[in-house]
Every structure is written in C-alpha cells, then in structure tokens.
TrEMBL record:
One of its GO terms (molecular function) is unfolded protein binding. Keywords: ATP-binding, Chaperone, Cytoplasm, Nucleotide-binding, Stress response. InterPro entries: HATPase_C_sf (IPR036890), HATPase_dom (IPR003594), HSP90_C (IPR037196), Hsp90_fam (IPR001404), Hsp90_N (IPR020575), Ribosomal_Su5_D2-typ_SF (IPR020568). Transmembrane segments: none annotated. SUPFAM superfamilies: ATPase domain of HSP90 chaperone/DNA topoisomerase II/histidine kinase, HSP90 C-terminal domain, Ribosomal protein S5 domain 2-like. ATP binds at residues 33, 37, 78, 83, 98-99, 170, 340. It comes from the Bacteria. Residues 26-180 form the Histidine kinase/HSP90-like ATPase domain. CDD domains: HATPase_Hsp90-like (cd16927). It comes from Mucilaginibacter yixingensis. Pfam families: HATPase_c_3, HSP90. This is Chaperone protein HtpG. Belongs to the heat shock protein 90 family.
Length: 628
C-alpha cells in the first residue's frame, strides 16, 4: 500500500506563514491559479493524444469549481492529465514549493502578490492563502497508474497515500481557513470566476442553472415548457480575439464590447490585433466615444495571458495615449509578474508598444483614406485622442500628421497640408511666415473673428482642453508657421503685411490721444498704444499678448509656470488712430466730453471681450443712456 510521509525540502521552517501574510491582500487569485492549472492539465492530455503518446479517450475537457458550505471546502476538479505519486512529489513538493525557497531570499523586493506568484512559481501554493489544508486527489493518464492522495497543512509536512479518484484527472480540495469563509459563497466565487476565468479556453462549470425547454403542447394546444437543470458554464471558451477577423461580423465585435462594458455606448470602431512574430499577441482594441471631456476612463483595456485574465492595469504595456482605448490584449510574451521597472526595460514590451501604436495609426489612416466623410463625422470623438497621441508619441505624429484635422469657424475640416495651401496666399506675413489664427471661444472673440474675416483670413476653432498643448506642438513641428489666438492683438499686428495703412495723425496728435485715453482709463494694468489700422477696424481694441496668455494658461493647468500665474493680467489697449472717432475726440473742445468719448470707446472694447462687469458695467449703461 502506498503510504509516505515526508518533509518538503525547505530549510526555513517559518516560510509559509510569511508568504501567506505577504500574499493575503490579493488572496482571491488562488482561484485563478488553481483553475489555470486545471485548464493546463486538460490541454496537456489533448496535446499528448495528438502527439500519439496517449491512446485512451480524451473526452470533452472540463473543469469544475464547487464548494460545500458545511464541509468548508472549495474543490477544483479537472479531467486532465492527472499525476502519479511521484509526479506529485516532483511537481508539487519540489516545483511548487521550491519557488517558495527562492521567494524567501528575494521577497523583500516584491511589491505585490501578483509579482511573487508567477515569478517564483507559487501558483499552486497560493491555495494556502485561503486554506488550512490542501488536499489533492488525482489519477494519472498513464497505463496502470494508481490514484494518489496528497495532503498538506501548509507547514513543510506532507503526506501521500493511496487515493480514491476513479477517473483520470485531479481534484484540488481546499479546506478553507476561518479567515477566508467569505469564499464559501456562490456570489463571491461567481464574481472571481467572472473576473479571471470568463474567457478560458476550456468550459468551467460552476453549479447548475435552470433553463426552460419546449415540452410539447397542453390540452388547449398551447406550447408547454419544462424546467431543466443544466450545467452552469461560466465562460466563453472562444472569445472573438481568438478568431480570425474574416470569421467575424461588425455585430460580433459590438456584442463583445457590450459583454465587456455593459453600460457603455457603442464604440466608434475597432482594431483586431494579430501578430505572431517577433512576439505573440492577439486582441481587439475599441475606440470609445470620448466627446470633448478630459474625464475619460483609463484602465479599460484588459490584459490576458492565454485567455487568463491578468490585470486591467496595462500601464507600461500600452503607450500612455492608447490607454483611452478599450478592449483586450492577450499575450503570453508579456512578462506578467515582474516589477514595473523590469517591464519598462523589457524588449518585448517595447516592441508591443511600437506595434500597437503603428496598428492604431494605420487604422486611423485607413479610415481617413477610405471614408473621409465618415472620418470627419467621428472627428469630434477621435480628435482629442489623435491630438493626445501626437503630443505624447513621436512615432504616432509621423503618421498622424496626415490625418489630424483642423476645423475652422465655418466647420470645415482640413489636414495640415490642406490648411497650409488654404491660407498660403492670404496669411503669409511680410517675413514669409504663415500665421494661423485660432479662437478658443467663438462667442467671446466674435469681434476679433469678424476683423479677421474682413481681411479674408481664416480662423480655426481650438477649444478643447488639449488644444493648448497641441498648438505648441504644431508650432514646433510646422516650418515657418506660428499660431496666434485671434484676440492676441489687432489683426494688422497679428499678421504683419507691408501695406500697413498710413498714419493720418501727426506725432503730436498721437501724443495727445495717448494722454486722453490714459487718463480716461486710469488703470495700470491697461497699457495704451496708438496704432494706424484701417479706418474700418474698431476704434479701440483690448488684447492680451499671445505669449503671456499661454504662460498664464499653462500656470493655470499646473504646467510648472507658477511665476506667470501670479502675474497680474496685463492688457494692451490699441487705439486706432485712423478711426474717425479718434479724430472727433481730438476735435472736441470740451475736456469732459473728450474723456467721456474715450471712456465710452474703451468700455465698448471691454464689453466685446466680456470684461466689463459690475459697477463699471452699470456706469457704462448709464453713460450710454445719457449719450443717446
Ligand atoms: N490540476 C493539475 N493537474 C495536473 N498537474 C498539476 C495540476 N496542478 C498543478 N499541477 C502540476 O504542478 C506543477 C506546479 O504548479 P504551479 O501552479 O505551482 O506552477 P506552474 O503552473 O508550473 O507555474 P505558475 O503557476 O507559477 O505559472 C504544474 O507545473 C503541474 O505540473
């Protein structure tokens, strides 16, 4: 009779309690590890059969998870390869537990349980996170194999005896410890299985469920149904990312998306990833509807390794800007259980990053090329994503520069090159620089947009939160081009041409105008300047310097420009010396009337900027009433 007691060859007696404590925070992963082992065991028998090394009946592979609240056990059963007593000694005692020895030497470096489990081959050992005693009942596929039973209480002592299992395969029986009784619950276990095992390649049975089946007709000829208990298979063994794109319809992708993210709107489009060299990777990435908010949810991509869910924290594996995407990535080549710094240095991870970036860029390029109208329709959703990618990833810019769109105030879209051509004739200044004008608030800057339009200049709309950064990035990339917000100066100054209108005021008159306005405005933050603009421009315009405003915007967004943030707002008051109102002011005899007209013109400029508020607004209204 088979009977053996032994000691697992580990020097440190107290190793198990230490590991147990270390792993405790993430203890639900015991189920992932044991179910994965069971799945592996069923796949091994299939492989042996296909290699001709097993001539028996393989049968339908199946794994079953069950629990017994009274006996306080959780059992993971499979009809896989099984183990002989010798194999238990070799694989469980030595392999599974030798990892523990190594762990003891290095455990100080580890940050979380996931890191330890895979790195040290502690998969099976994770059972002790929730169990006082772990029992194995197993029967090997080998001819003439005897059933074997192994039991261990988490100390270094184990016992192997004759087992009771009659059919090929393995039961791992966990005698759940007092602190882990929460796991003896249908919903708890179902939740963990849903999380980790939902797409495993072998059917996982967890209890039964009731279904209704047609059962002939009743006396009145109505169709009858009867209740039947059927196996509750918790997983989809053939998720779409394991299939060939040619087998799939749009509907399949949409249904899968719904399955992953039940409460989300339909995605815009998707990319099926499939590569087997130089690394192995499959997956489906979806472009969600983003709209214009920056509140997108990250950590929506799920990472799998051979259909076992690993994590939804894909940082480092997916380029930062692609974290906006949803979907799944499955790769056995990603080192899943190692530390972050190691992951960043890993050459496979770098290649995966590059590959995904390229695929995403190619997909967008293809959509743009094949269906420009459809692409433009989606631009509201994908625009921010494309801009974000351009800013954060050089390689992405190289491709995206051909399909990133600029939208003007007439809602027309242009690629960068198209826009260059569009404005070349009109918006090239006297030094040969193109000046692209933009607004970030069409309502507030309407007067400036109209000034630009009078000159036949085009104005782009750049009003999403990412546009500040996008604009600076474009300026670095585009040659001989600068972008200026339409209210950064008077239009003749934004795009300087040689044909500036002549002065109609003498220098002396100009000096007088400045004095009149300075004293009428009487605010240190507003600096008066006299310019000769065309007579049909407004008499007074208030602007804030483009550069200063950008610095302040960045400070406001926390971009490390704190110094500028604390500067007071400084405005330029441009007085158009060529406007007839200015001549009228000069000709007015009465000093009070001069000042009143100047104040009125200045207030109108503030008003068009939305800067006139409170008592000053009231004063303006009263003065206006008086004047009419
Ligand atoms: N259900 C099972 N049926 C057959 N063999 C098993 C079963 N569970 C575990 N084993 C054997 O025990 C070994 C050790 O398992 P363990 O989970 O500790 O490590 P692993 O699966 O090799 O690696 P890891 O889980 O760390 O990725 C396995 O490699 C396998 O040979």
């Amino acid at each position: 009779m088979m009977q053996e007691k032994g000691t697992i060859s580990i020097h440190t007696e107290n190793i198990f309690p230490i590991i147990k404590k270390f792993l405790y925070s993430d203890n639900e992963i015991f189920l992932r590890e044991l179910v994965s082992n069971a799945v592996d065991a069923t796949q091994k028998i299939k492989r042996l059969a296909s290699l001709g090394q097993f001539g028996g009946e393989v049968g339908q592979p199946q794994v079953e998870v069950s629990f017994d609240k009274d006996a306080k056990t959780i059992t993971i059963s499979d009809n896989g390869i099984g183990m002989t007593a010798d194999e238990i000694k070799k694989y469980i005692n030595q392999i599974a537990f030798s990892g523990a020895t190594e762990f003891m030497e290095k455990f100080k470096e580890a940050n979380d349980a996931n890191e330890i489990i895979g790195r040290f081959g502690l998969g099976f050992y994770s059972a002790f996170m929730v169990a006082d005693q772990v029992e194995i009942q197993t029967l090997s596929y080998q001819d003439g194999a005897e059933p074997a039973r192994w039991i261990c209480d988490g100390s270094t002592e184990f016992e192997i005896t004759e087992g009771t299992r009659a059919a090929r395969g393995t039961d791992v029986i966990l005698h759940v410890n007092a602190e882990s009784e929460e796991f003896l619950d249908k919903f708890k276990l179902q939740g963990i299985l849903d999380k980790y095992a939902k797409f495993l390649p072998v059917p996982i049975k967890f209890g039964t469920k009731t279904e209704y089946e047609a059962d002939g007709e009743d006396a009145d000829g109505k169709e009858k149904t009867k209740e039947v208990e059927v196996d509750n298979i918790i997983n989809d063994t053939n998720p779409i990312w394991t299939k060939a794109p040619s087998e799939l319809k749009d509907e399949d992708y949409l249904n899968f998306y719904k399955e992953l993210y039940p409460f989300s709107e339909d995605p815009l489009f998707w990319i099926h990833l499939n590569v087997d060299y130089p690394f192995n990777l499959t997956g489906v990435l979806y472009f969600p509807k983003l709209k214009n908010d920056f509140e997108f949810q990250k950590n929506k991509i799920k990472l799998f390794s051979r259909q076992v869910f690993i994590t939804d924290e894909v940082k480092d594996i997916v380029p930062e800007f692609l974290m906006l995407l949803h979907g799944v990535i499955d790769s056995p080549d990603i080192p899943l259980n190692v530390s972050r710094s190691f992951l960043q240095a890993d050459s496979n991870v770098k290649k995966i990053n590059t590959y995904i970036t390229k695929k995403v860029a190619d997909k967008l390029g293809e959509l743009f090329k094949n269906d420009r109208a459809g692409y433009e329709e989606k631009w509201g959703d994908i625009g921010m994503f494309v801009k974000y990618g351009i800013i954060s990833e050089e390689k992405f810019y190289d491709k995206a520069k051909d399909f990133v769109l600029l939208t003007n105030a007439d809602k027309k879209n242009f690629t960068l090159n198209e826009y260059k051509d569009q404005v070349a004739a009109t918006q090239t200044d006297k030094d040969g620089q193109q000046v692209w004008l933009y607004t970030n608030n069409r309502d507030k800057q309407d007067a400036y947009i109209q000034s630009a339009n009078r000159k036949a200049y085009d104005v782009l709309v750049m009003d999403s939160p990412i546009d500040n950064h996008f604009i600076s990035h474009l300026e670095q990339k585009l040659e001989k081009t600068s972008l200026k917000r339409v209210d950064a100066d008077v239009i003749d100054k934004l795009i300087k041409k040689d044909d500036a209108p002549a002065h109609i005021l003498t220098e002396e008159q100009g000096g007088q105008v400045k004095i009149i306005f300075d004293s009428a405005i009487n605010k240190p933050a507003f600096k008066v300047e006299l310019e000769s603009l065309s007579p049909d421009e407004l008499p007074v315009t208030v602007t804030m310097d483009e550069w200063m405003r950008r610095m302040k915007d960045m400070a406001a967004m926390g971009g490390g420009m704190g110094f500028y943030g604390s500067m007071p707002d400084n405005y330029k008051v441009v007085v158009n010396g060529n406007h007839k109102l200015i001549s009228r002011i000069l000709q007015t005899e009465d000093e009070g009337e001069k000042s009143r007209l100047a104040k009125q013109a200045f207030d109108l400029a503030l008003l068009s900027q939305g800067l006139l508020t409170g008592s000053e607004l009231t004063e303006f209204v009263n003065r206006s009433v008086e004047m009419i």
